[in-house]
Amino acid sequence: MVFVYRFEEAKGLDKFALGGKGFGLAEMTAIGLPVPPGLTVTTEACREYLRTGQVPAGLFPEIKSKLSELETKTGKKLGGEDRPLLLSVRSGGPFSMPGMMDSILNLGMTDSVAERMATLANDRRFALDAYRRLVQMYGRIVLGVPGEDFEALLDRTKKRLGVAQDPEIPGSEMAGIVQEFKELVRDKTGQPFPQDPWQQLEGAVNAVFRSWENPRAQEYRRFYKISDELGTAVNIQAMVFGNMGRNSGSGVGFTRDPSTGKKRLYGEYLGDAQGEDVVSGTRTPVPVESIDTSLRSQLESVAEKLERHFRDMQDFEFTVEDGHLYMLQTRTGKRTAQAAVRIAYEMANEGLITKGEAVGRLDPADVERLLHRTIDPSAAVKPIAKGLNASPGAVSGAVVLDTSEAAAMGARGEKVILVRPETTPEDIRGIIAAQGVLTARGGMTSHAAVVARGMGKPAVVGCSTLRVHPADGYFEVEGGAVVKAGDLITIDGTTGTVMLGVVPTVEPPLSPEFEKLLDWADDIRTLGVYANADTPEAAARAREFHAEGIGLCRTERMFNAPDRLKIMQEMILSETNEERSNALRRLVPFQLNDFLGIFRAMKGLPVVVRLLDLPLHEFLPDREKVLAEIEALWKRGAWVPEIQRVERMLGKLGQLSEYNPMLGHRGCRLAVTYPIIYEVQVEAIVRAAVQVRREEGETVKVGIMLPLVSGKEELILLKGVIDAAAQRTFEELGETLEYQVGTMIETPRAALTAGEIAAHAEFFSFGTNDLTQATFAFSRDDMEAKFMAKYLQEKLLPVSPFEVLDVDGVGKLVALAVEAGRRTKPGLEIGICGEHGGDPRSIDFFHRVGLNYVSCSGFRIPVARLAAAQAALKGETPPSSV
Amino acid sequence: MVFVYRFEEAKGLDKFALGGKGFGLAEMTAIGLPVPPGLTVTTEACREYLRTGQVPAGLFPEIKSKLSELETKTGKKLGGEDRPLLLSVRSGGPFSMPGMMDSILNLGMTDSVAERMATLANDRRFALDAYRRLVQMYGRIVLGVPGEDFEALLDRTKKRLGVAQDPEIPGSEMAGIVQEFKELVRDKTGQPFPQDPWQQLEGAVNAVFRSWENPRAQEYRRFYKISDELGTAVNIQAMVFGNMGRNSGSGVGFTRDPSTGKKRLYGEYLGDAQGEDVVSGTRTPVPVESIDTSLRSQLESVAEKLERHFRDMQDFEFTVEDGHLYMLQTRTGKRTAQAAVRIAYEMANEGLITKGEAVGRLDPADVERLLHRTIDPSAAVKPIAKGLNASPGAVSGAVVLDTSEAAAMGARGEKVILVRPETTPEDIRGIIAAQGVLTARGGMTSHAAVVARGMGKPAVVGCSTLRVHPADGYFEVEGGAVVKAGDLITIDGTTGTVMLGVVPTVEPPLSPEFEKLLDWADDIRTLGVYANADTPEAAARAREFHAEGIGLCRTERMFNAPDRLKIMQEMILSETNEERSNALRRLVPFQLNDFLGIFRAMKGLPVVVRLLDLPLHEFLPDREKVLAEIEALWKRGAWVPEIQRVERMLGKLGQLSEYNPMLGHRGCRLAVTYPIIYEVQVEAIVRAAVQVRREEGETVKVGIMLPLVSGKEELILLKGVIDAAAQRTFEELGETLEYQVGTMIETPRAALTAGEIAAHAEFFSFGTNDLTQATFAFSRDDMEAKFMAKYLQEKLLPVSPFEVLDVDGVGKLVALAVEAGRRTKPGLEIGICGEHGGDPRSIDFFHRVGLNYVSCSGFRIPVARLAAAQAALKGETPPSSV
User: What is the pTM assigned to this prediction?
Assistant: First the structure.
């Protein structure tokens, strides 16, 4: 087993073997860039160290032998009397873990080497300072001498000299400081500072291995889900010095602008400085534009070589030693969402990468960020509070602290921000009516957060400095502003900030590059992208975003919008079937109008309408409200029949109340009891579609979908009801219409019996929200209120299964159902219309499992188009995991 | 295709081809019993008729040819001048449908045949009466003349003659009646009554086919789940006449006593009568014991032949024509549950059947009936009302109309009957405390019915003549008794009757035959039978019933029994972990005691303890009660801290309330939040098991089971909690104990990820109640309250999935989980402890899917032992369906 490679030998090994830094150095060496010579100890050696607790037996002989090759090549010698070799020993795992592990510089310094370096560099201060740094770093990292002890010594000297910064310490003091540091090491360890450079090297390599397991590195890996088993490589490289005077310096560069994506060399340079000085910020570096032309053109040529080789934007570090440029590191550069889009697009146009690669390079989470309104960058902004950025976008409105009031004001077209201590499902009407939501409590997966994200509505949650007093009509910021109901505020869900007044926002236009990339994504993806939309406006927006149809048109609003609710309540309070039917028929004109708007907007495309899903009690007022109304009626001596009507409502509420409403009398079960509800809906759908066809010569492709089916029997029964209602309407209209009847698959049993169901369904659509609840046997509301936080904290769940589809459980049901459904009916059209339809990780699964389309809220369509293309790009290869 | 077989040719065909009656006739002919000759038209002919609406083309020629063979053999001829042949034409499907289809007797009678018969029989009245009967039957059944028109004519004659009964009509009137009937036929049909016997036969066969589809036959088949597609056979047989004087007669017999099972000829005989006269009851038949020895010994020899051939108790019909015995029918005889047991046992002992057949012959539903207390047969009983016999057994107690009161009285050891308009899950405490339940509303699957059956508690439900007034403390029977709270009543859930006062009951002892059969069943079955038991008494009973262990020891009672509840509430109201822990630790002695009792009873056997499953809010009083208490405290000027304590409870109730409690913070989820709850339970379990071992040298095999797990992560976490608590207890006790940690599989996700869960579980136990709820996504309470009835009525469900396991959906999950679990851990012990564990049809499935055991309530153990054996007997053959 070979554990050690010189940079020029390592070509062909990947970053899992060499670590990210070692890989970059090897690649740069291979393409002829000026890299100080060195060698990489592979991660394999570290893994063996982690497994056995011992450095592999052959490792140091191997290092020694490779290093002697290096010595021969450079003519320098570790601990050499003539031309001493100094080394940097740096960690470098497969994934970047900035600042998490240890490095040691200037290794090889000893008393005698320091003297020789002083002579060679003709700079005694430089040499002793380098020695001082080694003793300090080595003492701390390898020998475990507390870092603050070194600092205290240094401070004492600076105090004595009356200087503030290290560089101000005169050279004459350096020897004394080195001496003090060495004594400190001897005092603390009982051993003198090692004067054998090979001993130093052994200690340093050991320390780097060890540092893989330090607590902060472990913590970091846990957070970023990097496997503990990867291990780190160790890079042992000849030192170069940027702090050797005017002709020296260090810098960092990006091959393109990481902020805008513009193609230009971007970076900073600090003369007479080492790399760490650029980072530490004690002196201010200058932009690369302002450095001398020769160096700049060298860097530009380096940048071009890097991009051509790595085929992506690079972030690199370099040092100039006495006029010679050395490359010390390169890696893929981080960039803003905007830059990512532009870089991907332009690189594809430059022919550097394919269109597929360009599409594959975008992070869907970044893309999401591009789509929401943001605070106008030119506005003067002074946040009064900061919470969690639960759902992106910036929005302004009047503070409302009560859901009903929010709903009422929203209905009047007023812009409101719902501010609550926390939200519960009862606040849903308020959230619907509001521009945005602000809560004092709750995390990223709290009810408000989840609902708002689902609706594409800005939300700031868990704003812990807020004290919300709904009963008293105000909220206050701890030690700050008091904001009354009706006051205007602005919240920015992208950053989590809250501001007083209306702060101007801007709509981030979809950049032409982005539009183009999405077009490319459309060419790549095989998964359709539909929208969830239940108003003409949402339908129009969906079309703008290139939705290929509506995969879920909910019809609840068509029953509980304010102008319908009264009629619906009449229907519920009906004593006879006839009364019930009469009430419902009065809803047809309203619903006809709703469907007309949607169908006109979507003409030519499919629209899948889900018939009513809500239980009846959702259409009645709260029990408390009814009780209060009865009391009020009695008090003011109201007419008895009027009181009786309200008392009937109370009685009905009692009858309709359920122990577990989610598992109760809703969905298609309601229509089994009251088929008339679906009959009315079907009539409105058919009339609207026919009318649009008459007007425009073309109409939507109508799909009628049943909710909450648990077996083929319900489907057969209700398909009969639907077909009969459609037939009656055809006869009245004197013309017919093609339509399909399909079913949601949102109960585990529907998934398990999908084979039989498919014989009677023309399409399936997975309702993964309900399916997730039933599969786990937890209700989302209760789970989020009671134990979600604990479950995430204890890692019982990797992430909320309501955000990212639970592939192991729910996904297994989806896969079973797809397979069984298609076995019965090859080519069965299958989509998904749960919230997961807009989640990139879930979309990847839906692609793999062979769905025809995902349907998601309009806002998430661009993300879904991208994610679907990326899923297709991954092809048949299983998803990589770290 | 052959459609018609003479009886002696039909050997080898089964009852699906020949119908039950045809099969019996063919078999009896084959074994040499005296059967009047005849032929059977197969069900195949009927099925072709049903498919095409036409009698198959070749059928009548075939009948004619077979009949002429018969004519040759008997020397009689249809319509013959010399020795006319008369026929009976009877339907007979594969399954008995008594009285549902049509038969025609005396076919072949015409004007001339009647005259000839009068001469031959030397009895004109007999001949004309037979003719009259044919005209009447044929007119009604084949020609569609209303039956009441014939009756009216007959009544007019009887009135004129001043006689009451048909037999009193003198022979002289018969010719006139025949004439009137024939004229009625001509008037109604425009055609004379057919004088061609072949035409009569065609009409009759057609009519029998047609009668398969008459509404009452369809209804009957739907009810008994007999396929509409089977069709009926037609039996055409030479008539024999039991009404030819003193030497003639008809009777029915059983080869053993159908009531007790005793081996003796049992039956009734009526001299000078046709079969229908025996049934009609106008004259009283005599027991076979009292008929003449020669006939009796003939019958006894017939009975023995029948049993030897059919190897089961037979129910047969016979006619004696002028001293000659003719067998007209035989079939397997219906019998009481007691008789079934004795017959099966004795036949096996006689060597007539094998032990396996004996076990296989018992109907588990019958067996259940044997196990409940019954009204003392010697008691004078006068029921005041009758409802549905929802849960068997007879029981007496004081009427209580309120659940809380029932619970309170039950706690004081008083015997009460809970009487409610209907029950809801809130009544559960009352049902637990009561001896039995009586409701005015609800069907066999209503809440009360299901809960009571589950508890093995007698229940009469849907007693629609009851008006229950809980608020006023009484109930009344429509137009009858008024019964006040506190009055004693007796209900008999076996018959559905309600009686005033305490009616004596008897415990039906398990007969020795039954015990023996159950022992045989134990030898046959491979599925273990465990008990659900959570008290020492239940454990002892389980052992008496030969349970092999406790498969589910619930621990809820150990927290909410009256002496524990206060401590539990303290724990819930705790502000700190320490308070919480202190409160819970005080429960250890109580629980230790509970476990001691159970472990002593079950020593040597396994006991699987399920850790707490209930959500915390179940341990707090109702919100309304707390509100009332606060008001009361204020009113009487109570001490403020006391009021605050109750107000804290109210606050806690608010915090703990859930939208969907079933899907909420319960089961192992609760322990994820409060591991201390399980720690306390584990300590009590370990201490009890160790103490029993110290006392008795042997202890139970302890299994500790987690409820509501949805994935391996919860199991891993809580197994850690359990092991640590056990370890701590071992250290305190100075000794250790073996125990297993396993999990309920009661969420769909647990079933779907059973492969991964199995790696960490030492056993599985399916909780099919919760699993059914989640798989269908309906809550049992809401479903039964809101739409169960409609679903059963519309046949969306064949039967409540809470009674019989839903094999297509829930069963698929069970099968998946068993397979995946055993793939991970071959030999993994898997049981089921839901209510289905005591249901025979479900047990059959559990056997086939390879479970190790079922666990059911003590009362159902005998049934489960039997059902398990029957499942094993079926072996690998798939269950037959009709």
Answer: 0.80
